[in-house]
Each structure stands twice: as C-alpha cells, then as structure tokens.
UniProtKB/TrEMBL annotation:
Homodimer. This is Bifunctional protein FolD. It comes from the Bacteria. Keywords: Amino-acid biosynthesis, Histidine biosynthesis, Hydrolase, Methionine biosynthesis, Multifunctional enzyme, NADP, One-carbon metabolism, Oxidoreductase, Purine biosynthesis. GO terms for molecular function: methenyltetrahydrofolate cyclohydrolase activity; methylenetetrahydrofolate dehydrogenase (NADP+) activity. One of its GO terms (cellular component) is cytosol. Catalyzes the oxidation of 5,10-methylenetetrahydrofolate to 5,10-methenyltetrahydrofolate and then the hydrolysis of 5,10-methenyltetrahydrofolate to 10-formyltetrahydrofolate. Its EC number is 1.5.1.5, 3.5.4.9. Gene3D superfamilies: Leucine Dehydrogenase, chain A, domain 1, NAD(P)-binding Rossmann-like Domain. It comes from Candidatus Sulfobium mesophilum. The gene is folD.
Amino acid sequence: MADILDGRKLADEIKSEVKKEVETLNKIGIDVGLSLLLVGENAASAQYFQATLSACRKTGITAYEFKLPATITVNEILNVVNKINIDERINGLLILMPLPRHINSRRIINHIVPEKDIDGLGAISVGRLAADESTFQLFKKDKRDVDQQSRFIPSIWSFLPCTPFGVIRLLEHHNVKIKGKHAVIIGKSLAVGKPLSTMFLAKEATVTVCHKETADLGRITRQADILCSATGRAGLITGRMIKKGTVVVDIGINVLKGGTITGDIDFNSVSKKASLITPVPGGVGPVTISMLLENTVRSAQRNELFKSPLLVMG
Ligand SMILES: Nc1nc(=O)c2c([nH]1)NC[C@@H]1CN(c3ccc(C(=O)N[C@@H](CCC(=O)O)C(=O)O)cc3)C=[N+]21
C-alpha cells in the first residue's frame, strides 16, 4: 500500500509560515492585501474563491472581493484590473478562471501588472518561467541546491503558478527525488500541465507530457517514476497503467453527481502499486491555496524591499 502525500498538513505548515511573515510586515505598518476577481457563476471557481477567502482570514491577509456579472464587457473588466493595479493596498490579483465565453481571457490576464500576478499566468510570468528566470524559487527549500542558486539576487522576479509550484513543494516535502527521474504529466494546460513540465525540467527530470490526443497512454504512464495527472476525467488512471513504486500526484478535480469531489486517479487500484499518492480531496488542492498566499506575502515583501533604499525595521 502507498503512503499518502498529505496536502492538508503541508498547507497548514505553509499557512503558519505565511501568518508569521504577515505579522512581521504588520509590525512595521504594512498590510498584506489580496484581491479576488470572480466574473459570473462557476461552481469550481466559487468554491476556490470561498476557500481562498477563509485562508486569507487565517493568515491575516486582507482580502478584497470583486464579483462582476457574466454580462460585463471586456473593457469594464479591464477598468477594474486597472484600479487594482494601482491600488497600493493590494499586493496580488487572482482572477478566477475560466472567464465567461465571450471574454478573451488572455486580454484580461495580460493586463495584470507582473508585480501583482501572483497566479503567474500573465505573459511576462509565463515567459520568465520558460526562460528559467523565475525557476530559482523552486530551489529555496532544497538545501543541496541553495549554494548554486544563491548566486542570484534578483532585483525583480515573477511568480510561479500556484498549482504546479505546490506539486513541487509537496514532492520535496516528502523527499521525493526529482533529478534524473522520469516525470510523466497528463494535461497541457497553461495553469498546470505546461508550467509543471517546465518546473520538472528546471529540476532536471526527464519529462514527457501527454494529452487527449496521446496514443496508448498506458504505454507511457507505465514508464513514469513520477506521474502527475491534471485532466478532470475521473478514474482515467488505473492500477494497470502504472509500474510498482511510482509516485502518483492527482491534480484533477471532478465533482460527481451528488457533489462528491474526486480526482483523475482510481485511488483503490493505483494505491496498491504506488509508493506515494495524493488523495483528493486533501492533496494538491489545499497546497495550491497556500502557495497563492505565499506568493502574495512575497509580493508585499518585494514591494518594500525594492521600492525604497531605506528599510524600516520593527
Ligand atoms: N486563476 C485560477 N487559478 C486557480 O488555481 C483556479 C482557478 N482560477 N479557478 C478554479 C480552479 C479550482 N481550483 C481549486 C483549488 C483548490 C481546491 C481545493 O483545495 N479543494 C479541496 C477540496 C474542497 C472540498 O472538499 O470541497 C481539496 O482538494 O482538498 C479546489 C479547487 C483552483 N482553480
């Protein structure tokens, strides 16, 4: 039987770190602010919205809520983003995805100033990740790589998308070796599959990305040392599709009839062969929210550090 990669436990640890850092900033008169922008109605987004609000409350981050009707125009949303961009109280902006169909979501997301793009989905953030200009943030918790990475004192940097960032954190927290391993990712989305593949590359894994057009998925998943699935298809991965000892990360969220939440992995059959596995709920999801808060408090810290040569100490 596989051991569990416990996301709730790690998420709580990250949140208590964030809380301490928020308190330190509060002591020198700095409040940390996160804005949440929800357009229209969407069950998964509404749930993430609420979960993030309550995590903000727990850590002392001030949340600013923006709820707009689905009928709103692109320009009206851009005006709200403009307001948030120049609002000094706000350190980060999360725009809940997906946006309504008539809205060009790239147009909206690219309008967030990079300093506040704590979800890491804007073109600058995506480009910096692809060019390896922000991946050093993945090495902070990895003591062995600190020396190599600490050559960099960035004057400005971008944020990493919360879900894949959380996946790397969860693996490292459980001492899963990434370097030299074969990581197989299912899903090529901008928010999860693609950035996760870049992060695994930065960590020097051998990476294969599969998606809905991939022929004979099982042939590839059986080669994985680390298997990450982010498709939103319940039960896609069964025990027959993995080799013994695989580390399995379930990034899928499927709401079944009756409201039960499950991932992409058939937990019963896969957990018999895997060495480590994330449950859903209680796996990657809670860590995602904690990474969003961590990015937000980093944004506030950088703002202080880089925008004045004089630091006010508590
Ligand atoms: N710009 C953007 N970034 C996102 O990261 C984003 C988004 N839009 N839109 C909506 C989806 C959905 N999402 C979830 C994250 C965590 C849980 C989570 O923590 N779920 C709990 C289960 C909660 C329950 O049981 O009700 C868990 O996995 O344990 C759920 C959903 C992030 N999303």
